[in-house]
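Q: What would this chain look like folded?
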Amino acid sequence: MSAEEFGERIQPYETIEEWKPRTRLGWLVKEGKIGSLKEIFDMNMRIKEPEIVDALLGRELQHEIIDINMVQKMTDAGRITRFRVVVVVGNQNGFVGLGVGKARQLRIAVDKALADAKLNIIPVRRGCGSFECGCSEPHSIPYQVRGKAGSVDVVLKPAPKGTGLVAGDTAKVILRYAGIRDIWSWSRGKTSTTINFAQAVFDALKRAYRFVSVSEWGR
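A: My prediction, written as structure tokens:
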């Protein structure tokens, strides 16, 4: 579900001009001393303010709601019902984030999930690891990776150009926002649980960045 399908466009609480950074990294970004997310990850710094992502990606950043569910919690005052929203953000060119938000009001839950997704944004290692292709373009992933969340286990495999996204609907959304166009996938577990399926795919993409392929040696 996109923001337009949700019925209203999601906007951050404050614009970049009104943003007052609360961390050292935030001040470096606002002062222009850091100009890209890649620099942040190269320095192994942690993003603690969602406005940092807004400032660096700007209009490139897109988002989509992939799940809305009702959850309940028992307290001394009785049963409390809240909305749980799962949101994916990305620029469809190498950066993707997944976030979860809970609140009694749907709009607040969406805003929390969007902020959480920006804080969890990660770089995606793309490439062409398929022996059937060998084109060196970043249309797939460089090697096979596995991700897990709850009972769901997901394996992502490189695919030749033109294959498309051979995966479930939830996985397709995350992979598309990550900038991956061709991939094969295998999964097991209760994939109908959207949040676990999404987190398993996101975990696989996160693990892919822990390794350096041969083509990237010396960079």
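Confidence is low (pLDDT under 50) at residues 1-14.
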